[in-house]
């Protein structure tokens, strides 16, 4: 490891030493480098004098640490350059002055530790002290971890608790290495992903449309449909319940209405939900129908095979009150089985509603039937929630096998 020694004449000497090297041997190396006799040297680390018999690792000296050297005759003034037990400088102004005078060290700090360099070159001594304390804390934490790892290396191999700690240490080391690799090769993974929105007009009313290829159905909220003047076209025969991560009431369907993307008008159908937190979601059904291409390289949505291209909105252009759609769409959009992420499940849910209305058999009577309840319990034991299991059995008139296949996405 490398340590830096600050000499009384404000020079910095870098030594490459073994962690278990004795202080006396370090002084011998310094005698060669500085021409200061071993017996005239006094070394300080973290405000304490280093005895000749001490080992560097035993007193906490680690890679990159700084040690102060003063001649025996100059002990009275050494306090100005020493550090307190918490890592802060005893005399921060003097410490800063001495470091400033070493242009080579300042250059190294600017490259390897910009915050420390800025604190040394700045005028805020409190900031300098805070950084020195933080560096000291980090060194102590690193030393503690190294000591724990060393203790685990020599632990009893038949000690179950020790082996668990070793396993946890190895796993954490892998996680840390993976995190460091991600910071280097994939820093975008730690940034917030902005969802895809485009400007559209629905029946002449401008909207910010949430483009979601994971939702099989295009969805509009009741309040948004009313604002667009489309509620008069609502077909309430298609009532139902969208079940998944959450539940939303399907109040009907609007079979066709004009939407404008770019300068071109297209026909679109909507499922209307009683979902105040979600305005308009452009789903996979209409993306397929109008041959849309989500071009992330150019950051545009191409419609009609490319006849129209509209840019995806930047985060600053998306009103904050509609950003909740990113979360709510996972609950409101309808998907296969019981997971509401696409409209296939929506149509199946609608079928449930239609059958319940046309069969004349009260839903409550079937739910109370003991045989029906037993089938529901079996599906629940397979891992499905009770609401989804009940709806699936109703959809297939109590056929347990078909209901299970439906819930599994078959």
TrEMBL record:
Top-level taxon of the source organism: Eukaryota
Location within or outside the cell: Cytoplasm
UBA domain ranges (all copies): 369-410
Residue ranges, annotated region (Disordered): 327-370
Keyword tRNA processing: no
Domain Ubiquitin-like: 1-70
Name of a matching Pfam family: Asp_protease
Biased composition annotated in UniProt, kind: Polar residues: 340-365
SMART domains named among the record's database cross-references: UBA, UBQ
Main localization category: cytoplasm
GO terms assigned for molecular function: aspartic-type endopeptidase activity; polyubiquitin modification-dependent protein binding
UniProt KW keywords: Aspartyl protease, Cytoplasm, Hydrolase, Protease
Listed InterPro entries: DDI1_N (IPR033882), Peptidase_aspartic_DDI1-type (IPR019103), Peptidase_aspartic_dom_sf (IPR021109), UBA (IPR015940), UBA-like_sf (IPR009060), Ubiquitin-like_dom (IPR000626), Ubiquitin-like_domsf (IPR029071)
GO cellular component terms, A-Z: cytoplasm
GO biological process, one term: proteolysis
Family: Belongs to the DDI1 family.
Name the record gives this protein: DNA damage-inducible protein 1
Organism name: Musa acuminata subsp. malaccensis
């Amino acid at each position: 490891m490398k340590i830096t020694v600050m000499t009384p004449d404000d020079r910095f000497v870098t030594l490459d030493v073994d962690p278990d090297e004795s202080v006396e041997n370090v002084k011998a190396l310094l005698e060669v480098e500085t021409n200061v006799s071993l017996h005239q040297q006094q070394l300080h680390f973290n405000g304490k004098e280093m005895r000749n018999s001490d080992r560097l690792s035993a007193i906490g000296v680690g890679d990159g640490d700084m040690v102060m050297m003063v001649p025996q005759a100059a002990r009275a003034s050494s306090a100005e350059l020493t550090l307190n037990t918490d890592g802060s400088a005893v005399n921060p102004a003097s410490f800063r002055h001495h470091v400033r005078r070493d242009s080579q060290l300042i250059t190294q700090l600017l490259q390897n530790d910009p915050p420390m360099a800025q604190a040394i070159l700045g005028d805020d001594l409190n900031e300098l002290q805070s950084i020195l304390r933080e560096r000291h804390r980090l060194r102590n934490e690193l030393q503690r971890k190294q000591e724990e790892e060393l203790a685990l290396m020599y632990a009893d191999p038949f000690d179950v608790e020790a082996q668990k700690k070793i396993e946890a240490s190895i796993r954490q080391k892998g996680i840390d290495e993976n995190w460091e690799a991600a910071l280097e090769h994939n820093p975008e993974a730690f940034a917030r992903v902005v969802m895809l929105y485009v400007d559209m007009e629905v029946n002449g009313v401008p909207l910010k449309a949430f483009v979601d290829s994971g939702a099989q159905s295009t969805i509009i909220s009741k309040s948004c449909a009313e604002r667009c003047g489309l509620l008069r076209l609502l077909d309430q025969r298609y009532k139902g319940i969208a079940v998944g991560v959450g539940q939303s009431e399907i109040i009907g369907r609007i079979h066709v209405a004009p939407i404008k993307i770019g300068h071109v008008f297209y026909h679109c159908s909507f499922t209307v939900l009683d979902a105040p937190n979600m305005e308009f979601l452009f789903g996979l059904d209409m993306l397929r129908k109008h041959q849309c291409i989500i071009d992330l390289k150019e950051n545009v949505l191409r419609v009609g095979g490319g006849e129209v291209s509209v840019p995806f909105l930047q985060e600053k252009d998306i009103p904050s009150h509609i950003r909740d759609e990113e979360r709510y769409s996972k609950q409101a959009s309808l998907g296969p089985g019981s997971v509401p992420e696409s409209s296939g499940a929506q149509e199946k849910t609608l079928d449930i509603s239609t059958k319940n209305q046309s069969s004349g058999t009260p839903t409550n009577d079937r739910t109370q039937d003991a045989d029906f309840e037993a089938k529901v319990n079996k599906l629940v034991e397979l891992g499905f929630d009770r609401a989804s299991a009940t709806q699936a059995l109703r959809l297939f008139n109590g056929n347990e096998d078909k209901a299970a296949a439906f819930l599994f996405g078959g």
